[in-house]
Amino acid sequence: MNSFRALAPSSTANFGPGFDIFGLALDLFVDEIIITKKQQQNGIITISTIKQNEGIQIPYDNENNSAALVVRKMMEDYRIKDNIDIQINKGVPPGYGLGSSAASSVAAAYAFDKLFNLEINSIQLINYSAEGERASAGTKHYDNVASSMLGGFIIVRNFPRMEFIKFEPPEALYLVVGIPNIAVPKKKTEVARSLLPLTSSLDNIISNISNASTIVAGFAYKDVKMIAKGIDDKIVEPIRKKTIPAYDKIKESAINAGALALTISGAGPSVISILNTDKHSRDVMEAIKEGFAESNIESNVYLCRPSNGAKNQDKISLS
Ligand code: HSE
After folding, report:
1. What is the mean pLDDT of residues 280-292?
2. Does any ligand 1 atom lie closer than 6 A to the CB of residue 289?
3. What angle (nearest 5°) sits at the alpha carbon of residue 259, between those of residues 258 and 260?
4. Which of 35, 105, 198, 265 makes the best surface tag, with the fewest CB within 10 Å?
5. Is residue 10 scored above 90 in pLDDT?
6. Which pLDDT does position 134 carry in this prediction?
7. Superfamily name with CATH number, domain 174-304
C-alpha cells in the first residue's frame, strides 16, 4: 500500500464559555486527504488538490498548509525520509470558525499514521493534528482537532497532562450554522485571539465556570435545554461579537424563531444556534439569514447534526 485516504469533519469550538476547552464535531462539511508515499527519499512534501471546490482557497506551500505542517512534524519525529504527496479535497471553508485547518490536520495525521503503520495513540495523534493549527492560529489549540478526530462533544484537559473527555451528544441536538459572506483576515484565528483580554474579573470567571458546568451536565444528562442554558459567555463573546455585524440582533431573532441559544462558532464569524428539534429549523435559518441581510451581508445557513469524527475511507493504491 502506498496511499491512504482519510476524512475529517468540520467542528465548532468554545461552545460559549468553553474557550479552548469545548469542541463539537459537526457533520456539516468534510475534508478528504490522500497521503501518498513516493519512491524517492528526499523528505520532500508536495501538496495538490483532488478537486477545487468553488470559493475555497487555501495555501499550498509547506509552511502555511495545515496538513503539510502536521506531516512534516510526523516525518521528523519518526525519521521518515520518503517523499510525500498530500492531496486535498477541501470541503470545510477556511477562516469561518468551523474548524477548517483542524479538519485538514486531523485527516492528514490520521492518514499518515495508517500509511506508515505507526499505531500512534489518539492523544498523540490529536497532538500532531494541533501542529496544523499553527497555520491559522499561530499557536496550537486542541478543541477543534480533538472533536474532529474523536467525534461528539469533547472536553480538552491540558494539565497536568493532555486528556480528552468525550460525550456522545443527545439524539435531539440540532445545530443551525450561519456563515456570513464577509472578508476575513489572513490567519483570522490569530487575529481573533489577539483581541482577547489576558485577565478577567472574578465575577466573569465564576459565571463562565457555572455555565460551562451546566453544558457538561447537559451532555451528561443528554438534555439539550440544559446545554443551551449554559451557552452564555461573559469573557470572549462580548469582544468577538463586535467583529460580527448585527450579532445581538441575529441572536435575538434566532431565539424568537425557536432556537434555544446562539453563540459564535469558534473564532467566528459564523454563528451557531442550538435546537432540540428540527421543527423550528427553517424559521431559525431564515431569522439568521435575514439578520445578516439587514446589514447587507449575504450568508449561507445550514442545519446540521454532531459528527462521529475522522475515519479512513479505504486503503487505496494509486500506482
Ligand atoms: N478556541 C479557538 C479560539 C478556536 O476561539 O481561538 C478557533 O477555531
Report:
1. 97
2. no
3. 115
4. 198
5. yes
6. 87
7. GHMP kinase, C-terminal domain (3.30.70.890)
pLDDT at 31 over 80: yes
Q: How far is the CA of 194 from the centre of ligand 1 (A)?
A: 11
In the reported structure, the alpha carbon of residue 267 is separated from the centroid of ligand 1 by a whole-number distance in angstroms of 5
Torsion of CA 233, 103, 134, 78, to 10 degrees: 140
- Ligand 1 atom, smallest distance to 20 CA: 1
237 an active-site residue?
no
Domain assignments of the chain as residue spans, ordered by start: 2-168, 174-304
- Buried b / exposed e across 241-267, counting CB within 10 Å, b at 16+? bebbbbbeebbebbbebbbbbbbbbbb
Whole-angstrom Cα distance, residue 40 to residue 54? 33
The pLDDT, as a whole number, for residue 138 is 86
CATH class of 2-168: alpha beta
Distance 77 CA to ligand 1 centre (A): 27
**Same fold flag, 2-168 and 174-304:** no
20 lines ligand 1 (CB under 6 A): yes
* Chain center to CA of 246: 23
> Whose alpha carbon is nearest atom 4 of ligand 1?
266
The whole-chain average pLDDT of the chain stands at 94
Residue 295 has pLDDT above 60, yes or no: yes
Which residue bears the cell 495508517? 114
Residue 106, ligand 1, Cβ within 6 A: no
Q: Which three cell numbers stand for residue 40?
A: 524517492
pLDDT band at residue 189 using 50, 70 and 90 as cut-offs? very high
pTM of the model: 0.95
Ligand 1: centre distance to CA 67 (Å): 18
- Whether 163 is a known active-site residue: answer no
Instruction: Answer yes or no: is the C-beta of 14 below 6 A from any ligand 1 atom.
Output: yes
The single residue of 12, 36, 189, 243 carrying the catalytic annotation is 189
